[in-house]
Amino acid sequence: MNISPKRILLNATVALLLTAGNCILLRAQCPTENFKTLPAALEHPDCARSLSLRIAKSENISARIGRLQKLESLDLLKNELQTLPDSLCNLVRLQRLVLSENALRKLPSAIGRLKALHTLQADKNHLVELPQSIQDLDQLSTLDISWNDFASLREGIGRLKSLATLDISHNHFLYLPENIGQLSALRFFKMDYNVLTGLPAGFVQLRNLEQLDASYNQLQALPGDIGRMKALKILSLAHNKLQTLPAGIGELADLEMIFLSNNQVTHLPREIGQLKKLKTLVLIGNPMPESEIATLKQLLPHTRIIF
């Protein structure tokens, strides 16, 4: 039996319209992509892109959450969670995970399976270490583990090549791993309110770092070759034990602000006068003699110096 080309074209058109109609119908069956309860999201697993369970006072999360295979954002802020189900690591499309203000003591060991994750907020918990698989999160750009109970970081942290923002403030860090300098994309680093006495030699490899907050530590000196960190714009070093800055500080041509209040600074290197973009230099609470103050004013005539 011969079938005319017109009939073939008509059948194909009808099939295409039916397929499109089914797609529209399926999409119409989705009440929303953003859900506020887990049971509601589980009723529409193909629809759920975002699940917010913040301030729900939950003590646990059902393992069934692993069924939400298309979930991209999960917000568990301010609950009472002490553990997370391993099935959470099945959410391979997850891009944003908020775990702030819970009572977590550890993260799932297989968290490295969340390959799409770009934001992990785990601040204000009771974490003492990160899982080894954290190093497998190739897309992670923001990591906040502030206000926890960390004393050290795993060496694997240096493998997070996409990490741009890192907050480890308000912990108990005694030292940083040598390979912290391998975080080549890092731009913002908060490490204030720890007990660091020094920075590793490899720290100066953070060539793209723009803002560093190392205030409220026990730092006694900065790396002598700090001048290699050419992108630095804001340097916060208040409340440490610094007596001076290395001469290499003068090589940081883009530096705009230096906060050195409440240290033990008695003098600064003359190379600081090379910082033509320096807008603010804060030196409150340092035993700096009047002669040194006068010299700084001459070296930095366009800088606001606060003594």
Automatic annotation (TrEMBL):
Disease resistance R13L4/SHOC-2-like LRR domain mapped to chain residues: 88-168
Pfam families: LRR_14, LRR_8
Keyword line: Leucine-rich repeat, Repeat
InterPro entries xrefs: Leu-rich_rpt (IPR001611), Leu-rich_rpt_typical-subtyp (IPR003591), LRR-SigEffector_domain (IPR050715), LRR_dom_sf (IPR032675), LRR_R13L4/SHOC2-like (IPR055414)
Listed transmembrane segments: none
Domain of life: Bacteria
Family annotation (Gene3D superfamilies): Ribonuclease Inhibitor
Name of the protein: Leucine rich repeat (LRR) protein
Organism: Taibaiella chishuiensis
